[in-house]
Design brief:
- It is a single chain.
- By secondary structure, this protein is of the alpha+beta class.
- It has eleven helices and ten strands.
- The chain has two domains: about 120 residues, no CATH class; about 160 residues, no CATH class.
- The relative contact order is 0.10.
- About 0% of the residues have low confidence.
Length: about 350
């Protein structure tokens, strides 16, 4: 999730655990700082574009690492506030603020390595967009309400913050329900396409909401893209097919390509370039024809040597004029069609 949301969640947990004991905004500030700490791994120079992409949300988001870090960070916190905060409570504050960060990230599509150092694929539940006001606003409003009541000496000042935490958590649960409904509709709309090739299906929410969903179906050397809304009168999807090149042997053996394939769960597009290089695009983050993460892989020269390390290509973002139709698509099934690039062949 975005940094504001992670800070808000950490602050809300800090208030819930230690708000009355520390008073003021100390608990909120400590919780917000702890809640954003795992993302400091972006400052680490990993060496090449694919490593920087796939190692983010790695060890710093591991349940194991953060569980071991929590009692270490709790010690100076307890020493600083030992007259008001017990060591177990300081430990609880650190553990909750740290561990909920990767747990929330796991609900997005990017991929979070919750079980590092195990080699299991990154957790990517993909039921909530990276920025979703419906999740963040209850946390911010709850924090604001609790601070306002506390400054006026109200005895029940914690309840707005508790309500914000409850509402945001319920929204996460609702996002899972919405995803399940969309996946059931996709299964009914594409039983032959998915079964014919054993293709993989990705369902991910459109920006800023959980009513409209983007669907990608991988089918060998092509993929389908379509949209479905929970408000559609009938569960129908207008899929378009797009091409992806076959993987050459030298690229299939490239360690960075193998890692990229593992990290994206196989949702990538391959496109040959004029000089013999290949562009590999992460299909999970973006929409046709705009994607955020693209990588350039060059073949070994001369053949037989190790291939060069990949480099990042500039990503592109959707044009501003398509944002209005994107939200209109929530209730109008054809609103996005004029803005989608033509596909190839049939669905």
């Amino acid at each position: 999730m975005d940094s504001l949301t992670q800070a808000a969640l950490g602050a809300a947990l800090g208030e819930a655990v230690a708000g009355r004991r520390l008073g003021g905004i100390k608990a909120l500030a400590l919780g917000a700082a702890l809640g954003t700490l795992p993302d400091l791994d972006v400052l680490i120079p990993y060496g090449n574009a694919v490593d920087s992409f796939t190692r983010h949300r790695g060890f710093s988001h591991s349940f194991l690492v953060l569980s071991l870090l929590a009692p270490v960070l709790a010690w100076p916190l307890w020493r600083a506030f030992r007259d008001r905060l017990s060591y177990p409570r300081a430990w609880a504050l650190c553990a909750l603020a740290l561990v909920t960060h990767p747990l929330l990230d796991g609900f997005t599509v990017y991929g979070t390595q919750l079980f590092w150092p195990l080699k299991s694929p990154p957790v990517s539940i993909s039921s909530i967009f990276i920025i979703d006001p419906a999740y963040t606003l209850p946390l911010l409003l709850g924090l604001g309400g609790t601070l306002w009541l506390r400054r006026r000496g109200a005895m029940r000042s914690p309840w707005p913050n508790a309500l914000g935490l409850i509402l945001s958590t319920l929204y996460l649960g609702m996002s899972l329900g919405a995803k399940g409904m969309i996946e059931a509709r996709v299964e009914g709309a594409l039983p032959m396409a998915a079964g014919r090739s054993g293709g993989s299906v990705l369902t991910t929410p459109a920006p800023l909401n959980t009513l409209l969903w983007r669907v990608v179906v991988m089918e060998g050397e092509s993929y389908l893209e379509g949209y479905g809304s929970l408000l559609d009168p009938e569960p129908a999807f207008a899929f378009r097919r797009y091409e992806s090149a076959p993987v050459p042997l030298w690229l299939a053996a490239h360690p960075d390509f193998q890692r990229l394939s593992w990290f994206t769960h196989g949702f990538y597009r391959l496109r040959p370039l004029e000089d013999g290089a290949y562009e590999v695009t992460d299909l999970r983050m973006g929409a046709e024809p705009d994607y955020i993460f693209r990588f350039r892989f060059e073949p070994p020269n001369p053949p037989g040597l190790a291939a060069p390390r990949p480099s990042a290509l500039p990503g592109t973002r959707p044009q501003g004029e398509a944002l209005g139709p994107l939200f209109e698509r929530i209730s109008h099934p054809t609103a996005l069609e004029p803005f989608r690039p033509p596909g190839v062949g049939g669905p």
